[in-house]
Amino acid sequence: MGFWEWTKRFFGPDKDEIYVTQKAIEQSNKLNIERFGIVMAINFIANAVSKCEFKTFLNGKEVKGDEYYLWNIEPNLNESSTQFSQRLISNLLFYGEALVIDVNGQLLVADSFNQVEYAVVENYFTDVSVKTMNFSRTFKMSEVMYFRLNDTNIRTLLTDLVNGYEELNNMAEGKYKRSGGRKGIVHLNKPANGDKEFQKKVDDLFKNQFKEYFEAENAVIHLYSGMEYAEQQDTSAKKSTSEITDIQNITKEAFDRIAQAFRIPPSLLRGDIADIEKITDNFLSFCIDPLVTIIGEEATRKRYGKQAFINGSYIKVDTTCIRHIDIFNISEAFDKLIASGGYSIDDLRIKAGDTPLNTDWSKRHWITKNYQDVNTIEGGDK
Length: 382
Fold this sequence. Notes:
Blueprint: H1 3-11, E1 17-20, H2 33-50, E2 53-58, E3 61-63, H3 66-72, H4 81-95, E4 97-103, E5 106-109, E6 112-116, E7 124-130, E8 133-134, E9 139-140, E10 144-148, H5 154-180, E11 184-188, H6 196-215, E12 227-231, H7 242-261, H8 266-270, H9 276-303, H10 306-310, E13 314-318, H11 331-339, H12 345-351, H13 360-363, H14 374-381
Antiparallel strand pairs: 1-11, 2-3, 2-13, 4-5, 4-10, 6-7, 7-8, 7-9, 11-12
Helix pairs in contact: 2-4, 2-7, 5-7
Pfam family, one: Phage_portal
Protein name: Phage portal protein
InterPro entries: Phage/GTA_portal, Portal_HK97
């Protein structure tokens, strides 16, 4: 390929003057909005769920036994409950499904598996692997906890949606680079047809030497006969903030779509703190509660079963632990909850993140004299 053919391919046809800008430098390190946004959203949700308490009930009473310890402290020898729940939620959100197996009393989140599905008989799982361990056996549905979101693959839909924003962002990023890059014009006075040695020198000039010249703090460059280079006025000092604003706006729009797909209030994912209490309520109601309901139901039906559930045995995921509680801000509410008999002192101390007193009086339910039985009031009016 001759020099002029090379320049036409590289810079475009009909060029007797070439503007040497970032075009001479190979572009790389494009922002991956999709990957970054999805990972951020998933980590945000996973961290929130990991703060929840898995409450275990036996015959209608809350107990803290082996099952409670398994879900809240140590599900397996190599993970804490926080690490376990984060892996579980991350897999569930990223792949749309997650599998937990019980191996000798340890709960393990599978890294990969295959499921064979049936309509009216029990599904089973093959090729189950956890880290470096591959299980050759087949797991029946009744032997595992299988969590699944709806059939729509969120990640696939987001990929199609965010690709458009990715292209716009790349254009804005290129505009930003060009607005602050050094520019110059190379005048080509004569072609290099037939001179292969000169052609190699020119190729090296545009591909390598100009790149080093632009990147160096102080540098000179050697031009061959038939070439003239003119440095253009430095415009970096005049760079407008519009290019940065373009990138910020496109990224913000893409993040908003990702947040909506995961039912996260967009402002919460962006870190806005205005109306944080209302936003947090929205986050808990529409994002966290449906997820923990899936986990609680599957854990209950597989760890307890139908008859035990009927008798009042089940697992409930308490999301109230996600909120940060300032005891001075809610002191009046605490007083009202105790005075109405709704909670004991120890109940509220636990919810506030404090240790229970574990005394006879702190475990009791109290009620003020202002509260009376409605039948008593009706009887007094007769």
